[in-house]
Amino acid sequence: MNLVLIAMIAALLIPIYEACQDEDIWQKVLAFASIATKTSMMILVLSVVRDDWMIGVVGVLILSVGNASLMLLAHVLKRVNE
User: Fold this and answer.
1) How far apart are CA 9 and CA 37, in angstroms?
2) Which of 2, 8, 28, 66 meets the CB 3.0–4.6 Å disulfide criterion with 36?
3) Global pTM?
4) 58-80 exposure pattern, b = at least 16 Cβ within 10 A, e = fewer
5) Residue 19 lies in a domain
6) Number of domains in the chain
7) pLDDT by residue (tens digit) across 18-56?
């Protein structure tokens, strides 16, 4: 199971590299949304491995609320640039 978590962390580094490389704000927002999704999935896998449902609840909250807040931020940035 450690190999799965290491692979997930390696997959998490790809959007972090993309966010640091791009200057376009929309590409950064998409990269951060990808980071939030991958992080919450890692938390859900960890909660299944540890058999702890409280950690799973936190992962679900990050998955649902985290992406919504990023989309609200993108909408605000779009309105500011108009």
Assistant:
1) 12
2) 66
3) 0.67
4) ebeebbeebbeebeeebeeeeee
5) no
6) 1
7) 778 877 777 777 787 888 888 888 888 888 888 888 888
